[in-house]
Structures are given as C-alpha cells and as structure tokens.
Amino acid sequence: MVPSSLPRSRGRGLMRAPRTAALALAGALVLVPALSACQGAAVSDDTPAADGPVRIGVVVPLTGPVSQVGTALRNGLELAVKKVNAEGGVGGRPVEYVVVDDAGDPANSTQLARRLIRQEKVTMLFGTITGDTAEAVGKVADEAKVPFGTAILGDTEHCFPYQWGFGESTRQMLAPAVPALIAKYGTKVALVGSDYNYPRFYAGIAEQLVKDAGGTVVAREFSPLGQTDWQPVVKRLSAAKPDLVLSMVVGADAVTFSKQAQQFGLLTPRLGYEGAPLDADFYPALAPLVEGRTHTVRWSDGVEDAESRAFADSYRSAYDWKAPIPEVAGNAYFGVRFFLGAAAKAGSTDPKAVNEAIGAFRYDSPLGEGTRFHPSNHVLQADMRDVTIGAGGAYKVTKTHPMVADETPKKGCS
Amino acid sequence: MDVLLAILGQFGLYGLLTVGIAVIFAATRVVNLAQGDLAMCGAYAAATLTGAPFGTRTLIALVAGVPVLLLVERLLLRGAVLDGLAAMLVTWGLGMALRQGAELVFTGTARTVAVPVEGTVDVLGSPYPAYRLVCALTASAVVVLVLVLARRTGWGLTLRAVADNPDMAAVLGTDPRRLRTLAFVAGGLLAVLAGALYSPVLAVSPGMGFNLLVPVFFGLLLSRPGALGTAAGAALFVSALSVLLRTWLSDTLAEALFYAVVVAIAALRSRPWIGRFSAWFRRPSPAAAGAA
C-alpha cells in the first residue's frame, strides 16, 4: 500500500507546480512593465526637490542577530528628528525619514540604499550596524554622492569621501584606556576577538598602543563567530598569565566567552577586562562580571549634561526602556543632529552641498565642544569618557577625556 | 586530562543533538533542520522560568515540549513525510519560525542562565568547572540510556526495522506512523534537553541553535541510518576532532581543517571500495547496501 501511494502523491505535486509557476509568470509579465514604468519615472531625477523637506534614508537591521542594536540606533534617530522638527526643522524645512530593514545582510543594504536614493530621493543616509553592511552602503553613497552617517563604534582601514562615523574610532577608545589599564592591572596584555576584519584591525592598533604604554602582548586569539566552546582559547589565554584582556569578541559570543572565561577561572576581579563585552547592550546578560569595571566610551546614559539627560529621559519614556541605553542610540541622536545642522548651514537639500558642509561643520553637543570631522580620515574629533559600571546598570561617568584626537590619515580621504 | 574533559563536555552537547537527529532520521528519513532551534527553545525555558530551580525548569521544558512536538509532527510533517525533501524544508521553516518567534518574544539580546552548581572540582589534578562536569556526565548518561533502549527494547527493534526497510516493517505489522510520531517527539526532546542542560555555559540567543546545526549534521552524515551507536560514535569523533584541532592549532586554522577532514571522510565513504570494505563488518541488508 505504501509504495503505490508514493508516485501518486508526487504526481499531484508535479501537476500543481507548473500551474503555480505559470500563474506566477503571468502575474510577473503583467507587473514588470508597470513597475519599470514607475522606476523609469523615478530614475529620471535622483536629486531631492529643492524646496521640499529634508529626507533621511535609514538602513538598519530591525530583524536578525543584531536587530537589538539596530533598533536602538533607529530610536535615537527618531528622537533626534522629532526634536529638530519641534525646534522648527532645518532652515524652516521639515525633516522626514524612511526606515528600511536590511536584516544585517550587505546584499539587502546595497539594494535598499539604492532604492532610498532613487525612489525616496533622500538627502542623506544613516544607519547600519555591522562593518560589511556599512561598507555596502558606503559604496552606494559614494557612487551616488550622498552623505552617509554611521553611529556604531569602531572604524575601518579605508575611508570613503561620503561616509562619516559618529561612533568612537578604535584609537579613540583605546588611546585613553590602555595606559590607565596597564597602570592599574599590569603590563601583560592578552588580545582576543571574533575572527573577522574588525577585531583584527582592533588588535593591530591595541598592540601598538600597548607597546607605547610599556606593556607586552602575551597572547592573541581569534575564534570564528558563533563559537560555543571557548575552553581551548581560555586555556591558551590563561597559560600566558595576562594581567589584562582586551576583548573584541562580539554579539552573543561576547556573552559566551565572558561566561566561560569566568567558569575556567580566567576572568576574576583581579584581571583587567575591557572591550565590546562591557558595552551597555550586554549588561543585562553579564551584570555580575562587568560591575565595578571601567569602560571607555563616547557616550553613555550616565553623561551628566542637561541635553544628554533630556535625551536619555525621552528615550526611557518613549520606548519604555529600563536597561542601560545602548551607546549607539546616543551617537545616532547627536550624529543626526550634527548632519541636520550641517544641512542647515548648506541651506540646501542637495546631497553634494550637504556633504561639503558636513566636512567643514563644527557642532557643540554633549559629545564635545566644537566636534568636527578630521578631513584625512573622517573620524569625529570628540570627547571620550571613562564610565564605571555600577549596580543596576548605572554607567556613571568617572572621568572625561576632552577632545581625544585621531588624526591618522586613511586611504580614500587623505 | 584537560583535553579529555573538553571532549567529554563537547560530546554531551553534540551527542544529545546528534542521537536525537539520528532517531528522527531513522524513523522518517527526514533531516530535522530545526534540531538546533529546538535546543534553543530548551535554553530559553531555562533562561526565563527563573522562579523555579534549574532541574524543575529542565523538566518543565521537557514536559511542555511533548505536546508541542506532537502538534508539529501531526500538523506539519504528516502530509509532507512522504517526500523527504519537502519534509526537510518543513523542518527548515519550523527552525526559522522558532528563531523569529524567539526574537519577537525575547528580543535578539543574548541572555545568560546562572550556573546551578558553583565552583570547580579537581579531576585527576585538573581543576574543572563543576557544572560543566555535571552537565557533560548527565548528557552522556542520557545518550547511553537512549542507546540501551534502542538495543534492548521492542521500540528500539521497531525503530531499527523501520530504518532498514519501512515497507517491510509495515507489512509485518508495525505502524510506521506511530513510530514516526514517537521518534520525532523523542528526538526533539533530546534537543530540548541539550539546550536546557547547556544553557548555563552558553549565551542564550535566538540564533544559538543554528550554530549547533553544522557539527550535528556532520555527525549524522558520518553515521549509519538506524544505528544510533554509530551516531553517538560520530558525535564523539566530531567533538574529539574539533577539540584536538583547537588545542593544537589556532581556532581559525582548526576550523578550516575540521571542515576539510569531515568533508574528506564523507567523500571517501562514498567510494565504492570503501563501501565494500566496510560492508564486511556489518550484517548485509538491502537498505544498508543501498546507503553505502
């Protein structure tokens, strides 16, 4: 009985498939001319209307593994636009934004960025979390000559003329932190990271700064993303007997690594520990391991400045937020306000003119007095802060490093 | 000693998942691509029901898992089971639904589960986290129990019969439908148990199960359908290979070599002369000869 039913059911399946395919094909044939007609109309002129609103295209992952950080960025941006509109917009023009979800996939980011430029006629792009999606959007932005802002920490070796990063650069986060950590914990430093471009770039800069501060790098370990067993890595790190571990293990791996490092006796209160796992996003998962430690960041919700506090309060009430506010939200909030300030100065919605204005703009915000981009690397010259992580997730500022410079030239802009 | 303990720790996790996926494969000829995501569900049960002690949370996860797995099997796999590929796609879809569902309910941020047994124990001179040892031993014991059940009970015999030749088993009075349901629930529960047991050593996130799928899939690839012992052996081999390579080499190089070795073994196994050679060592049966 069983064998005879097999071919029959398969036969039915085969009959159904061509019919569905035929219907889909017919549908597509009807739709394609209609769609291309729409696109044709849109493509004819990419430039935004001169007297219309200022439009921001936001490419962020709202689904997928980094959706939480993407959502925080979107929230920060949303509040910034609300604030600017409440204050009268940009030179009298209202600000609008269009959010698209790239799910953290660079193939999506490229397409969505193109669509935002062509169909939505945005004056500027903002967003992305992971390095590969930032690069994808950066390329589109460069081709179309539309300014693009990011808010996540870290930078890349390459610089794009139309890309501007509001997150702290690797040098800015490490330069103030490394000498202080070496003085406090000791000179033997171990570097650990997820295995992709950025953590290796981070480790290269860290190694240089450790040497400059009189320390030595005793171990360097990289492990593929999605690692579930850190025992071999932790054992090798322990064998090097470090005084300090600088970690660029990212995402959920940051939690797994920190937990297993503690379980195997590496991560004790005597060991210095700095890097991605201390970010506010991981606090709910790693609270007991990171409390009492010092973390160097550009912005935290503990910044004691009226404007920053007002932003943090509005974030908490608008999104019913109880955990520490991710740094990326603050960087996005003040970053978008910087971009819009530059657009006001440009007095135009023309992306090229706005990009020129961004390069020359100076802006006072809780991120620093007279923050500006360095022309040779497009790194925002701004303050950095040491925050001490307290009970309940209070990221309290314990020291401010005013205007931490990063003027190292990069290919592409210098 | 460190290395042996690391292999044991890894085997507990991979063993439960691989034997679970092998039970399902034996009865249904479907590779359950949602196996890792079922483990994720177990881990979330351990991470969210924090009011109860850890053991109770694990039990709740298992008990709650039964009706859910039954429902999934009845609703989604009953019709599709006639076509292996369709059913595999259904399990892929189920996995995606579970991941997205977890992201919606629990957000994408990773969570942690407090370790139920604190401290370290001395194992022949090597200090080792106590809970890791407890969970590795528990998981291994469950794997052994499943193997004994498959060897010694009527259910195990039926499972092996259906794996070898489902048509013949049906003719001889076994109800393959019932067995398929039972196997899917049992295999799924092993995954839920793996997730709950290992949640205190891992980061609990919606994507965690997906990362576990590759080694488990390799384990299934290297085992013989219906022979759960070979699945456990393959899981042990995968764990040992991964741990040894990572002990001797850097993680990046170890991972590349790991894939190379597994793919090479899988390719070699499909060579006819290897098939003939290995057929010497087992009872000749039509299904086994077909699989080789």
UniProtKB/TrEMBL annotation, chain A:
Keywords: Amino-acid transport, Signal, Transport. Pfam families: Peripla_BP_6 (PF13458). SUPFAM superfamilies: Periplasmic binding protein-like I. Residues 1-37 form the signal peptide. The keyword tRNA-binding does not apply. Belongs to the leucine-binding protein family. PANTHER family: ALIPHATIC AMIDASE EXPRESSION-REGULATING PROTEIN, PTHR47628. This is Urea ABC transporter substrate-binding protein. It comes from Streptomyces hydrogenans.
From TrEMBL, chain B:
It is found in: Cell membrane. Coiled coil: none annotated. It is a multi-pass membrane protein. The chain crosses the membrane at residues 12-34, 54-72, 79-98, 130-150, 181-198, 229-250, 256-274. It comes from the Bacteria. PANTHER family: ABC TRANSPORTER PERMEASE PROTEIN, BRANCHED-CHAIN AMINO ACID TRANSPORT SYSTEM PERMEASE PROTEIN LIVH. Belongs to the binding-protein-dependent transport system permease family. LivHM subfamily. This is Branched-chain amino acid ABC transporter permease.
